[in-house]
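Please check what follows.
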Amino acid sequence: MAKMSGADIVLECLKRLGATTVFGYPGGVVLPLYDRLPAHPEIRHILVRHEQGGGHAADGFARASGRLGVALATSGPGATNLVTAITNAMMDSVPTLFITGNVARNLLGKDGFQEADITGITMPTVKHNYLVMRAQDIAYTFAEAAYIATTGRPGPVHIDIPKDVFIEESEFEWPERVSIRGYRPVTRGNPAQVKRAAALIDAARRPIVFAGHGVILGRAHEELRTFVEKAGVPLLHTLLGLGGMPHDHVLNYGMMGMHGSYWANHAASNADLIIGVGMRMDDRALGRFADMNPTAKVIHIDIDPAEHNKNIIATIPIVGDVKEVLPQLAESIQARSHVEWIRWIDVVKDEHRASMSIPNGDELTTQFVVDRIADAIGHEGIVVTGVGQHQMWAAQFMRISRPHQLITSGGLGTMGFEVPAALGAQVACPDRVVWTICGDGGFQMTFQEIATMVDERLPVKMAIMNNGYLGMVRQWQELIYKDNYVAVAMSQPDFVKIAQAYGIRGILVTEKAQVTDAIAEANAYDGPVILDFRVEAEGNVWPMVPAGAALKETVESSEEIARLLGHAAAPVKAPTR
């Protein structure tokens, strides 16, 4: 067998993995790899403008497609610029592969030019990482890395390769199978635990499902629907779980959590049985852990055993893939309906719709804009958001109804995620319309990736919710810190002129009457578009669970927050039978 350079082996590995799109940025130590790219035309290299952008693009690619996303960077600052994107992928369990070059082996640990211990730096923020010291180890390392990234609970894996290993020659030997001692993800639920869980479900009077990102990652939306319909159980979504059930399904009561609906949060607080499906019981979804419905029994289904009993003690933890466990449960339970319980939730919903409605009046609001964008793109379009108020309003009003439709930074809450992640999503899904809902603050962190969109002819539509503030921080300063605005007002550039500078379409929208036509114009334009929506400056996201409060303390106005800071909210009681 003829020998190949380490660089050729890397590129052959990517082809074997089906990972033929790489978001990268060159530098000295990876030049041996870039030198071989022309010999491998099957690999599409997309030149980003910043390594963080490349990492978020790989993340967006993976979320939109369900396939492995790949980012490439050079050593030192190139590698460290990936850290935010790697951590973002780790927090949201996104299957990604991050490849970095490093200084030659004889210079490792000697503080050479552009050396960074990126293996040590990323160790807490990856599912696994590797420093490859021999060309002969590259093939198995890539096979194993991809296996780890895409199985069990997905996540980022990092591979660091010294410059001279790219040059070193070895035979290419692709492993037939990958076997890792100690890594055996459990996919099928323990039958005894499933039987116990089924008995709890059959006995429950007020059961509820919390559906998380694991439903999307595990491609288990059909299994979720089958289970929920047979059990007759109302369902709530975490932010990243949106899309696991059609928005208009009769048992879907929408998003729970810090900016979830009043009725969802009170349903969660009054259930006698909580069924957590593919979610990690995090603080943004559950509020104050100690008061997260302490009398309810809890069934927690998750493939990662480390998530069980971490934040909430489960009555019955079930380790397994939700795609396999949900059918096991569905087969074991009785067909039920919970008419009185659902009627109670409906009454609360009817009484509190106003707190999550589009504001009346002539002023242009983010809620109005995202609602109109949702109308225009339907369920087939992809929505990518940044982080902040616009993110919450998009989750509330965009009627997310299918897996992979909403792409957003959940666990890490990364401003600047929106533009590069949308780029990656458009590469993954060239036949879908991709809109990114941007904050005026977050947009300015990473909008250099518009140049990449132009080069690659990616028709992403960028809707900037321009309110002149870091909106969510301003909201907290208004409500929690007594209107003490510090470092939140932002002077903005002319975003339409920025569009013109990149040679793309720019549209300014200042009035409600202009919104529909502006969206239609953007959708009709064959290329990237920036839409500068001048929305109200000081709108607040309602409902809200203040940090450290319980879901039962959900508030719908600034007056209620003021009262809550002084004493506990009066609980809303559900029927007992």
